[in-house]
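Student: I would love a firmer grasp of how sequence relates to backbone shape in proteins. I am handing you a single protein, as its sequence and its fold in token form. I am told such tokens are a discrete way to write the fold. I hope you can help me see how the letters and the tokens relate. Take your time, and here it is.
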Amino acid sequence: MERHIAFEHLYNFRDLGGYRTGDGREVHWGLIYRSDSLGKLAGADLARFRALGVRTVIDLRYPWEIAARGRAPELDGLAWHNLSVEHRPYDQATIDPRLDPWRYLADRYAEVAADGVPELRRALEVIAAADGPLVFHCASGKDRTGLLAALLLALLGVDDDQIAADFALTELATEQLIAHWHALHPGRTLAWPGYGRAPEKIIRLFLADLVAAHGSVRGYAVDRLGVDDDLVGRLRDRLLTR
């Protein structure tokens, strides 16, 4: 099975299949994907995407990002949901290099977990109800996408080590993400050396903060998102092997 799905203009498209849960089950391959912006899909990339049979897209970006960079193509049978989980925009290119970069990003994730409650809850409901393969994405497929992936995998029963390892796979796309930023912003300087980076420490800090505040990631989902046993059960029934 392929963890990384190769595209020409998508750099961070991955299958979330194969991760094992505490009860010995496994996330189905070919059913749930994470990605960078699908607004770049065209030509051979679009054909490869269609071959995956994706029927549902969750776009986690701001509407103004979609207006500027495009959305997933409008294909027959493809449901598209814009659930902008981040409510406090910031420019990663201009983050102060003197700050602890991983603590800084973990704190931004905490803001998303606090502010994006309706959108995160809705994203989980869409995933649970989707008919066929689904992909969720943001701009780089790193931060907002990584946060939702971590929440989803935790609710499925995947342990922190696998969640952190999945998060860090974005590091394989860092060079391309940086090159893409320069192509989009000619003449600007990328001041922050952490741009495009995704070390495990970021998501481990975020998950530890949720545990400290709510006892567990499931506790956060119950306390803040209103996730109940029925929704978790539907997610597991749909995404896990028997």
Summary: The mean pLDDT is 97. The two ends are 18 Å apart (CA to CA).
